[in-house]
Amino acid sequence: MNNYYDYAASTPVSDLVLDAMHPWMQLSFANPSAAHTEGQKASKAIEESRMIIAEKIGAMPSEIIFTSGASEANNMALKGLAFQYLNEKCHIITSSIEHKCILNTCYFLEDIGFEITYIPPNKNGEISPELVRKAIRDNTKLISIHHVNNELGSIQPIEAIGEIAFENNIVFHTDSAQGFCKLNIDVDDMNIDMLSLSGHKIYGPKGIGALYVRNARESELVPLIHGGGQELGIRGGTSPTPLIVGLGVAVLNFPQKKSDKHLYFENVIKNFNFIHNGGNDNLSTICNVTFSDDKEVKRFTNDYPWYISQGSACNSISNIASHVLFNIGLTEDEARRTFRISLPPYYITS
Ligand SMILES: *Cc1c(COP(=O)(O)O)cnc(C)c1O
Asked: Which helix (H) or strand (E) holds 20?
């Protein structure tokens, strides 16, 4: 897929990841919860992966709960916390440009009586920590602001938001599906209490992700899937050894450098007239552009048969203009001329 420039939607599994996963599907398929030596072997592989992920974000292995992906991790963080307050209900602060899995979870929680504030971004797609501070109420129990916006690439000031949450004794969750491995994360320095991550955004397999939960052992997070006590009883279901091993290997081998695709794209895009959306504090692998007119759009899409998205992949299915683009003030016409080109992710220093 030479023309694939939609890496923010999904990445391919790397060869190393695929090779590492293979033995756990047929040779060593035992249930990792089983007491026999084959089960224990699988369990040990899972714990190694847990250690790799914990180390990447400055957490303890016991604070990593494996899930089916970032969508489930986000649901687990929001519903798991909200369901502790089913009787008195509580207030949650989030932003209006979160991923749909956060927004739809919040709409559901509103339907059953919770109060939600959706902080709007500025025109660069940044959430102001001051607006978050002003939104705090007596019954605010959770602040959930994403790390990197999946459509714009804008990096949110999560350190400042984490500090505000900490000062006010409010749990801080961040959806870092687009930030994990690409940017430095230290959950202590950034006052993050819960963090969602996903495998298939970092050359790992689809269907695996994790939620970091501060002091998970003592956590009162309400499980979404009750099961056989796996994952500290917070997430039931037989642990998928191949996927978990794949996730760990993806983290260990995450690329440190740009690929040739970046150079190629830089050379192409400079020949067009466009406005770049998403401000200066922006992940360089997500390029959101509004072309100056329909002629430029045609030139871009006809000359280069890109696999790209208008807005996010999820919006493409529903074929409605992106909520993110409307929120940063684009008109419907501008949104129509707007494209997200996302390049192979790599670790971005500083
Ligand atoms: C991809 C993505 C998700 C969903 O992750 P899955 O693992 O596919 O469920 C959530 N949030 C953001 C910001 C994403 O980019």
From this structure: helix 15-21
Atom number in ligand 1 closest to CA 207: 7
**Domain covering 15-252 in this structure, CATH number:** 3.40.640.10
Q: Does domain 260-342 have CATH number 3.20.20.60?
A: no
Name the residue ranges covered by the structural domains of the chain.
15-252, 260-342
**Ligand 1 center from residue 8 Cα (angstroms):** 9
pLDDT in tens, 213-267: 999 999 999 999 999 999 999 999 999 999 999 999 999 999 999 999 999 999 9
- CA–CA distance from 186 to each of 63, 81, 143, 195, 223 (Å)? 13, 22, 18, 11, 25
CA of 70 to the centre of ligand 1 (A): 5
Q: Which residues of the chain have pLDDT under 70?
A: 311-320, 350
Question: Does residue 177 have its Cβ closer than 6 Å to ligand 1?
Answer: yes
225-239: pLDDT as tens digits? 999 999 999 999 999
